[in-house]
Amino acid sequence: MRHPTEGVLRRLLDEPAGVADADRAHVASCPACLTTLESVRADAGAVGAALGSAPRVDVDAGWARLAATAPAPRAAAPARRRRWAPALRRPAVAALGFAVVLSGAGVAAANDWLPIFRTEQVEPVAVRTGELVALPDLSAFGDLEVTGEGEPTEVADARTAEERTGLTVPDVGDLPVGVSGEPSYQVVDELSAVFTFSADKAAAAAAATGEELPAPPPGLDGSRVRLQAGPAVAAVWSQDSGLPVFAVGRAVAPTAFSDGVPFETVRDYLLSIPGIPAGVAQQLRDFSPEGATLPLPVPADMVTTSTAEVGGREATVLESRDGTMAGVVWVEDGVLTAVAGAVSTDEVLAVARGLR
Amino acid sequence: MDLVRQERWTATSPALPAARRIAGTARPAGTVRDDLEPVFRAEYARVVAVAARVLGSRDQAEDVAQEVFLSFGRSSVPAREARGWLTVAAAHTALNLIRSGRRRTAREEVVGAEPAIVPDVADAVVSREEHARVRAALSRLPRKQAVALVLRHSGLGYAEVAAALDLSVGSVGTTVRRAESALRKELNPHASPD
């Protein structure tokens, strides 16, 4: 008979009962297999020794530590009035999640996490407002599970914000005209999200648009992508009315991990899902994991974008067409910084270039 | 102000919280699953052991285990899949740590109060030098092989490894064998501790 594979020999060492009788009988009487078995055993032994044995642990102490760090009830944190319009946030999530998923995809529960995406630069994706809202909601294609508190919490001062996030709060030199007073400081803790692609859900979503879902590539169903972002900190200046007029923020830029299902495969598949506006698909096609670009969706009919240099880095500049608002955002060493407000482009750039 | 709001939000926090609203399986904020403690008590030692085999440090391994259980507590992973999920997550988290010292540093800054990493070696039998080589070699293995290897050496059965990694039981032996063969080649068997 044929010699059993080395994989079978390997199992023979650990779980002989799991190896077919015929294979066991063969090995027992085959000098070649016995020789191989010995080298398999030697390798296993050497690697086992190199990996070391299990350390002794104090389970009670471990549990006490976990219980102490487990999430505190939400009521403990002062409730902060939500000023950021959810309707505007949602498309941004979808776009971010989508772009990251496009950058690669993974396999089941915590399988094969590989870093596939770390934001190195920001690029605006110009879309029309209608398309922005129509950007695919990822929940249609699978499950999204978020770990970490996403709500911004106001903290007393910059030092507290720095201690809590580990980020340096940007120090603004001269404020633009019309912006005055002390800012409020907000922090967001590290967040991670796991997106699990589900062929069933995606098929249902496609069916809802009256179309059929293309057959997913092998291994994609149940695939997971883990996104990690934050912590983040922002200094926000407000008018007396409470409306924010100027903000400077900093965040650990988003990173994604997957098991390395070929990026092109996943990208092409997702782009083929019905319901994605053709224009968006075309633009997203330009993104690659190598570029590690964070797409920043902007409504093309309201905002113009350009680039400028901030501290030797290329930054993305956004300006509302009516000239009332401007912002600039860039990434350096995995940290994303943004300056934005109801001010002119020159003013945001002046502040951005003056940050420490 | 809408633009500024969106921009600020997008820039400083990629708005992942909104995902919570659309999540199919997310657990409400601030709650943990009821069975966390029994699962923790049953699996903690094993989860630490998995991470320690990758990291060569009990302290770091315990940090990883804490992180993994915290995620588990917020997840809705079925209890019967807990062991596989936890051990795979521990292996990946630990492998990610050795793969990217940068991320770990960032995290430690955030955590701040994290205890100093003591260069302890779980087992005095293995020298630190050899552990460094093992870690380097592990990080170069295909991820699935590395995880299967560590799980197997942490006492998971072939069927458990197969279920956890979505492999057929028959291919676990092959995967582990390949990993061991590759690792053995990388670990210079003639290295003398000089």
Task: Walk me through the structure.
The complex is a heterodimer of chains A (356) and B (194). Chain A is built from 11 helices and 15 strands. In chain A, a hairpin with a 5-residue loop joins strand 8 and strand 9. In chain A, helix 1 (6-14) crosses helix 3 (31-51). Chain A is an alpha+beta fold. Residues 72-117, 129-136 and 287-291 of chain A have low confidence and may be disordered. Chain B starts with a helix and ends in an 8-residue tail after the last helix. Chain B has a single domain (29-186), classed as Butyryl-CoA Dehydrogenase, subunit A, domain 3 (Up-down Bundle), CATH 1.20.140. In chain B, helix 3 runs parallel beside helix 5, helix 8 (143-153) crosses helix 10 and helix 9 (158-165) crosses helix 10. Chain B has 194 residues and is an all-alpha fold. Chain B is globular and about 45 Å long. Chains A and B meet through helix 1, helix 3, helix 4, helix 5 and strand 3 of A and helix 1, helix 2, helix 3, helix 4 and helix 5 of B.
CATH fold category name of chain B: Butyryl-CoA Dehydrogenase, subunit A, domain 3
As a whole number of angstroms, the C-alpha radius of gyration of chain A is: 26 Å
Rg of chain B? 19 Å
General shape of chain B: globular
- Tally the beta strands of chain A: 15
Count of domains of chain A: 2
Assembly status = heterodimer
The residue fraction in helices of chain A comes out at 25-40%
**Mean pLDDT level of chain A:** 70
Fraction of residues in β-strands of chain B: under 5%
Low-confidence stretches of chain B: 1-27, 102-125
User: Biggest interface, which chains?
Assistant: A-B, 115 and 111 residues
Number of contiguous helices of chain B: 10
Q: Which parts of chain A are unreliable, with pLDDT below 50 for 5 consecutive residues or more?
A: 72-117, 129-136, 287-291
CATH architecture of chain B: Up-down Bundle
Secondary-structure-derived class of chain B: mainly alpha
Q: What share of residues are in beta strands of chain A?
A: 25-35%
Which outline of chain A best applies?
elongated
Secondary-structure element string of chain B: HHHHHHHHHH
Mean pLDDT of chain B, to the nearest integer, reads 71
